[in-house]
Amino acid sequence: MDDDKKGDKKSAKTLHHNTLAVRSSVERSQFGENSEALFLTSGYVQPTAETSARRFSGDEEGFTYGRYGNPTVASFEKRLADLEGAEACISTASGMSAILMMCLGLLKSGDHIVCSQSMFGSTIKLIGTDLAKFGVESTFVPQADTDAWRNAVKPNSKLLFAETPTNPLTTLCDIQQLASLARDAGALLCVDNCFATPVLQRPLSLGADIVMHSGTKYLDGQGRVMAGALCTKEEIIRNSLTPTLKSSGMTLAPFNAWVVLKGLETLDIRMTAQASRALSLAKWLEEHPAVKRVYYPGLSSHPQHELAMAQQNGSGGAILSFEVRAECATQARARAFYVLDMLTTLSLCTNLGDTKTLLSHPASTSHGRLTEEQRQMAGITQGLIRVSVGLEYLEDIKEDISRGLDSFT
Hints:
The chain is of the alpha/beta class.
């Protein structure tokens, strides 16, 4: 972290997260680079055969093969672990591969997962359909209903998995309550912290065992690369997750790691600015006559507004969703499509966390592979539009969205 390489662990505990975001990394190379180096290599020359044997067996630290580790990747993992207040971090090729690696590493046939029914559509399909083929049971419950989580727990429950806020309805769960429930059940609690990021909330400090990230989103911040990560205890990574990574090859590419590593340096200022715009946009949409409802934790009308203010560092985040007014589902879909098709400045794009404002129609994209029953359970209507608020001038954002909305008033 510093030229004399002293006090890394102490610094991670005492430095402000803004400082860690630009300073935390592995040691500099012998060349003394100030910006973290990008190491593009698939193999590493070993000094001796005995050293090579010890490193491959795990008895000695050291890089051996690109699928197992890389200095640039290690810098990203260290920085994110420090930001989340975790002992360690392991990265993957994407957010979904991070979820898969967690499940493969921690679960076996006959185990049970309890999840929110409002989670990202691909997560619901992965856990509810794909893992079920291998004997992993799952129960999906209403996100905000702690009693439903408690009632869903079984003797074979090994993992509770929550996404807070959820995608796209921004529903929260009380992390401390779920952490207590998981401990009582002898299970682990994983929290998807993609929307809030460690700038707004640090689930481990609230009792969670694992934090999951899609680095593709806010950690990168400019929609350039794919990345995923899990932050947790060193023991869990060493004994359960690293062996899975080595066998499966869900490896994060060094270039992608370098891009996200640099993205973390501006995470705080981006999240602060984007959340401020999101709050103003949400208030404006709430007053628009063509809008039926706005979903945003920063609004006092949000049913979990107080929890959001306490749990998310006083911020609602930079994601919101809204429903267009309509008389039926067919009309709602048509009107939502019209609003999206009338955009001339903002982007119709299913990613999120970009510096550019992105809008999408969840029912036909992120949740399009779900059954209509699953969509209804998740609250995904045909008139719902998700907005990932970027850094454009606020009035330009309003004008572009109003071009379609004003047609219905």
